[in-house]
Amino acid sequence: VSEHEDKRHLEQFTKLALDNEEVDGDDEDEEDTGMGEIDVENAN
User: Fold this and answer.
1) How wide is the angle at C-alpha 6 spanned by C-alphas 4 and 8, nearest 5°?
2) 41: which of 1, 18, 28, 33 lies 20 to 30 Å off by Cα?
3) Residue 40 has what pLDDT?
4) Mean pLDDT throughout 11-15?
5) How many alpha carbons fall within 13 Å on the CB side of residue 33?
6) Looking at residue 4, what is its pLDDT?
7) Core vs surface per residue 11-21: b (16+ CB within 10 A) or e
8) Quick check: 41 pLDDT over 70?
9) DSSP labels, 3-43
10) Can you tell me the distance from the alpha carbon of 21 to that of 18, in angstroms, rounded to the nearest whole number?
């Protein structure tokens, strides 16, 4: 790998890492939301 290619790869990885960082509004503790309760006993 040439020095030029090595530098280009480093720039690409840096950009991807920045793009992959969490953005404002992301919440790791976000609760899963479903479609409601299911009545399994009266599911006819």
Assistant:
1) 70
2) 33
3) 80
4) 93
5) 1
6) 94
7) eeeeeeeeeee
8) yes
9) HHHHHHHHHHHHHHHHHHSPPTT--TTPPP--S----STT-
10) 5
